[in-house]
């Protein structure tokens, strides 16, 4: 029996590859001779670079860049197996996981390090990019990234503004004379499933600001600052980002890409499915296992289990989804190709214990799900 194992990471606990290996162990306890195909995947957020690099036989290059709190950190970009495509995970340089809960403050966090990664990849000769922009801790409209690439954002005194969403209100002029000319010669594929506009009640600040540390007062301020930033960009380029779908992705960096970069935006999971050749690897499979840390109604909005299930459904393959936590509104997932959803938590335990035991719990749950599936087939 051929079984495809295509989970996302269980964030804060184990990587997608580690999750796949854990699920495989459970399957092998039941069917030692089964043909298991491991395809760790991601949806454009944390883990996307690792998934694409691993699937294509590429490699990872590390650099020191400016972190979200303006201090040096180690970040990385990946070169895919074609030796031409660079994949950059925004979270590597500007991610939420880089900042403690107490330190989170989108008024000051910056995307400058993400811009530095792009510049270093350009210096290395890369001209084809996949940019995964999930998991950011910033709300600066991509201003820091643009500054790292040579754009000057000037205040009314002609000096450059500082870092963070709190500085955007001070922009009175955008000088693109020294903006890296290689950007126009490159191709950019932006991986995101976020379609929020830049500003307003459904915009970057109101929807995503609180998880990045914004208080209600800060949210209102950040939204006003992004509105001013959008006004300045429209004045400079003629491109109106205010209500544009996707402009609010990753604290507004989605809008910066739309205004100043040549390229396309695509669902992160679709990009990963394409580059990992998941559809081809599913052919001839009897079952598919997928999963991630949390499965709920939001999973239907382009998250990994949904993308995997949609591909499997085209081939008529049953899909089992394993999750650390199963939330509300999951009924919609059954209509999209997921046959059953299982929490791996099998006893009362703390979140910390669940995260530490994730691999063990995945192995146990995968084994039980497969035993139940095989028993049901015999019953019929």
From TrEMBL:
InterPro entries: Glyc_kinase_flavodox-like_fold, Glycerate_kinase, Glycerate_kinase_RE-like, Glycerate_kinase_sf. Keywords: Kinase, Transferase. It comes from the Bacteria. One of its GO terms (biological process) is organic acid phosphorylation. One of its GO terms (molecular function) is glycerate kinase activity. It holds the Pfam family Gly_kinase. Signal peptide: none annotated. Belongs to the glycerate kinase type-1 family. This is Glycerate kinase.
């Amino acid at each position: 029996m051929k079984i495809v194992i295509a989970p996302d990471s269980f964030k804060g606990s184990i990587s997608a590859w580690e999750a796949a290996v854990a699920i495989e162990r459970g399957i092998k306890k039941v069917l030692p001779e089964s043909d298991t195909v491991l395809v760790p995947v991601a949806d454009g957020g944390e883990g996307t670079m690792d998934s694409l690099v691993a699937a294509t036989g590429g490699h990872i290059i590390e650099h020191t860049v400016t972190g979200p709190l303006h201090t040096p950190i180690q970040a990385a970009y990946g070169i895919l197996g074609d030796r031409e495509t660079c994949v950059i995970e925004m979270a590597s340089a500007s991610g939420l996981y880089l900042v403690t809960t107490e330190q989170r403050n989108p008024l000051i966090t910056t995307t400058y390090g993400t811009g530095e990664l792009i510049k270093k990849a350009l210096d290395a000769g890369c001209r084809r990019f996949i940019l995964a922009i999930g998991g950011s801790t910033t709300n600066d409209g991509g201003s820091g990234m643009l500054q790292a690439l040579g754009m000057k954002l000037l205040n009314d005194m002609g000096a450059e503004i500082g870092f963070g969403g709190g500085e955007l209100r001070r922009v009175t002029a955008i000088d693109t004379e020294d903006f890296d000319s290689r950007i126009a010669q490159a191709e950019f594929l932006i991986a995101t499933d976020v379609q929020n506009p830049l500003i307003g009640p459904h915009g970057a600040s109101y929807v995503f600001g609180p998880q990045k540390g914004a208080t209600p007062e800060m949210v209102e301020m950040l939204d006003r600052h992004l509105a001013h930033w959008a006004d300045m960009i429209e004045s400079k380029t003629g491109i109106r980002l205010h209500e544009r779908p996707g402009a609010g992705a990753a604290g507004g960096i989605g809008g910066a890409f739309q205004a100043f970069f040549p390229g396309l935006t695509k669902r992160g999971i679709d990009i990963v499915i394409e580059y990992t050749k998941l559809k081809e690897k599913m052919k001839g499979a009897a079952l598919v296992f997928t999963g991630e840390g949390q499965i709920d109604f939001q999973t239907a909005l382009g998250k990994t289990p949904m993308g995997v299930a949609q591909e499997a459904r085209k081939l008529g393959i049953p899909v089992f989804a394993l999750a650390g936590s199963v939330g509300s509104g999951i009924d919609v997932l059954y209509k999209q190709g997921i046959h059953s959803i299982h929490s791996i938590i099998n006893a009362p335990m703390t979140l910390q214990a669940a995260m530490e035991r994730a691999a063990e719990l995945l192995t146990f749950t995968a084994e039980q799900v497969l035993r139940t599936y095989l028993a049901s087939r015999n019953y019929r």
